[in-house]
Amino acid sequence: MDTLALQLLNGLDKGGAYALIALGLTLIFGTLGVVNFAHGALFMLGAFCAVTVQKLLTISVKVKDESITFFEAYKEVPYLETWFGETGTIIIDYSVPISILLAIPIMLIIGLVMERGLIQRFYKRTHAEQILVTFGLAIVIQELVKANFGANPIPTPAPDVVAGSANIGAWLGLGNTVVYPWWRLIYLAFAAVVIAGVFSFLQFTTFGMVVRAGMQDRETVGLLGIDIQRRFSIVFGLAAVVAGLAGVMYTPILPPDYHMGMDFLVLSFVVVVVGGMGSLGGAVAAGFLLGILQSFASMNEVKSILPGIDQIIIYLVAVVILLVRPRGLLGRKGVMEN
Amino acid sequence: MDEIKKGVSRRGVLKGGTALAAGLAAPTFFMRNVFGADFRNNPGDGGTVTFGFNVPQTGAYADEGADELRAYQLAVKHINGEGDGGLLNTMQPLALKGDGVLGKKVVYVTGDTQTKSDAARASAKRMIEKDGVIMYSGGSSSGVAIAQQSLAQEMGIVFMNGLTHSNDTTGKDKRRYGFRHFFNAYMSGAALGPVLESEMGKERRAYHLTADYTWGWTQEESIKNTTEGLGWQTANAVKTPLGAGDFSQYITPVLNSGADVLILNHYGKDMINSLTQAVQFGLRDKQVNGKDFQIVVPLYSRLMAQGAGENIKGIFGTTNWNWSLQDAGSQAFVKSFGQEYGFPPSQAAHTCYVQTLLYANACQMAGTFYPPEVIKALEGFEFDGMGNGKTLYRAEDHQCFKDVLVVKGNDNPTSQFDLLEVVQEVPRSQVEYDASIFGGELGPYEV
Fold it and tell me: How many Å apart are CA B380 and CA B375, to the nearest integer?
């Protein structure tokens, strides 16, 4: 029971990340019709916003390291600590939450520049060409990040106050065996809030209503005198922000490296396909579903019966769902069928 | 007239010619194995000899590869008589004179293994066929090292392994043309055992998470043999895919498994992620079976320790070498490397530097670059002053035997580099084993 509860939490947590990335992918595909293979790179860029903020906050003065006598070595003391003492240390400790504030405008700008500068030139091209160009773009971004930050993962810890684990078992009267890291719980809550925010934005605002109308029939919306293209560009920026925030918040869970976007991209595409191309609800549902299934498949009890199932479960489920429901769980007729 | 005829008879000319031909051929016939005029990439009368350094310049181990490359460049500098000489000042016995190898200046080419076996082989093949390297070297993954070592045997070019820790490298996959200075998983287990016993006792239940490839398997096997020999039980041993990223689904079963020790048979990025996540799940704060929960990382590296940050504090493991050692060889190397690059070398850099010097020294001792003779000079070679005490290159499996370091993450680091604290220098005699236990065949000298 305890193990099941923990695996469920793991699945929800993982599913939250898949859902956030898949949501952005679906938004872009649903509005602009572009299959964006650079979306994983946006997730990675978000994570590196957190790394950059951490580096900025820890800009240091070099002080000769007297403990090293073999050669001239220097240690780095952050200016913030020199100037503000304990307060400076606390500010550095909160670098990940602070990064969120910075990541929103940066990712919005990156998204808009990417869409205006490159993606818009491929709207009328085939999906194969879109995949090629966005995949190439992802590799360029990845290599730029590697050149600047190196190939090794960079530790970007959560604030000390949430570095430990929550004793969920004690809250629910299950004993002390169901403990779960605070930050992963925060990530889960964060994913839920962002998903709810995106849906609310599309459902309850005029802007969202126009976008939804455009997703249904962009020509008719255009005939009404609405510049739907401009709104879709903003949606691209919004999707970049969602992916970026998912990346920022993921850094305490997984120390970011230049390749992390690619690791998530393939899985997220499977999530989109299983959920149904163009279906926002489908992407979210499939994200959580596949995250949970993947988590349960890696239980030792399951693997003892089906060795290696944890590595193939997502693809196996994708094959079965596409056989039974070719348009995915919540896919609509006519999407990507031409 | 008759006498004159006798002197120039046809038979006489033939006899004389045959004798002359035999006389001219004799030196090369008898000395062929010494000078080896006829072997691949023989530098001949040229003024230079080319080494190849095949390291991960891209991919997950790129930072480690960069440190290895720095060490190789420093080694070449010292062999050619430039810089402060580094370990040439402390190595015993030493045949090198600081004027290159056999009077030839060493030059080098580099390649990128990408930490992929096929890419590493392609790069090494290019070095051998196009650049004419007489020896190549590199490391960071056992799978990649084994692939390159196998190519070395096929091509008749010596391969000096860099960082590779699998028992298989000098076990079932050993090759006559491959040599390893780095220690292996068996030695990690043998060195760790007594320390784990004294620190954690004899009644423990261990849970292994193991990288699913040759190095992970052999390390799990070696550590299990050691811990079970101490009386520990093995609660479970779970294979994890390489580059899993999120290990949460593998860590949560540990919480309720009854295990009180988690052994992470992971390296590089996987180790950083699994250790970070294990700490996040509160494993180190847990009490199980009335004991504090412990985590062990059998193979440590300084670069990994940097990646894992605070999480390594107090965690036990082993390393081949650490920059904080106080012997003359280690200090000489750290000084050279530190002056050149501004920070101390990693264990990967150390082993690569030493391997380059050992190969060059073997050529100098053999008086030739002819591989079979160089191999014979390395086989059974015993040396000192390179940072790990007296060291033997065992002839039977081309594995170096030397002291092994048991370390733990430093609780109170005094500098940014002071990440690992040496708990014990385990003497060579405690980590030695019979070469036959891991099987394998070295193969022929002549290929």
Answer: 10
Q: What whole-number distance in Å separates Cα of residue B237 and Cα of residue B211?
A: 11
Write the secondary structure of A106-148 as one string of H (helix), E (strand) and C (coil): HHHHHHHHHHHHCHHHHCCCCHHHHHHHHHHHHHHHHHHHHHH
Of A67, A155, A303, Cβ closest to residue B309:
A155
Place of tokens 């006498």: B3
Cβ within 8 Å of B, A 5-24: 6-7, 10, 13-14
At residue A230's C-alpha, the angle toward residues A228 and A233, to 5°, is 110
Residue A55, chain B, CB below 8 Å: the answer is no
Q: According to the model, what pLDDT value does residue B1 have?
A: 38
Q: pLDDT per residue over A45-104, tens digit each?
A: 999 999 999 999 999 888 887 777 777 777 788 999 889 989 999 999 999 999 999 999
pLDDT along chain B (447 residues), means of 10: 47 56 48 60 92 84 86 97 94 94 96 88 94 91 90 95 93 95 94 92 94 88 91 92 81 88 89 88 86 92 79 91 93 93 91 97 96 96 94 95 94 83 93 92 90
Q: Distance between alpha carbon B421 and the CA centroid of its chain, in Å? A: 22
Question: Is there a contact between B250 and B238 (Cβ–Cβ < 8 Å)?
Answer: yes
Q: Do A184 and B61 touch (CB under 8 A)?
A: no
Task: Compute the distance between CA of residue B213 and CA of residue B219 in angstroms, rounded to an integer.
Answer: 10
Give the ipTM.
0.74
Contact A300 B306 (CB under 8 A): no
With beta carbons less than 8 A apart as the criterion, state whether A61 and A77 touch.
yes
B415 with A254: Cβ contact below 8 A: no
B63, B253, B338 ranked by CB distance to A3: nearest: B253
Residue A11, in any domain of the structure: yes
Tell me whether residues B273 and A254 touch, CB distance under 8 A: yes
Q: B236 phi and psi, to 5 degrees?
A: -170, 155
Q: Which domain holds residue A131?
A: 2-324
Quote the number of domains for chain A.
1
Q: Answer yes or no: is A334 within a domain.
A: no
Residue B104 in 3-state DSSP?
Answer: strand
pLDDT tens digit sequence for B213-262: 888 998 999 899 999 998 999 999 998 887 777 888 889 888 888 899 99
Which pair of tokens denotes residue B107?
């030059």
Residues 255-314 of A with CB under 8 A from B: 255, 257, 259-260, 263, 294-295, 298-300, 303, 310-311
A118 within domain boundaries: yes
- Tell me whether residue A336 is in a domain: no
What pLDDT sits at residue B418?
A: 84
- The length of chain B is 447
Cα torsion A253, A257, A263, A269: sign: positive
As a whole number of angstroms, the distance between CA B145 and CA B164 comes to 7
Q: Which has the higher per-residue pLDDT, A308 or B85?
A: B85
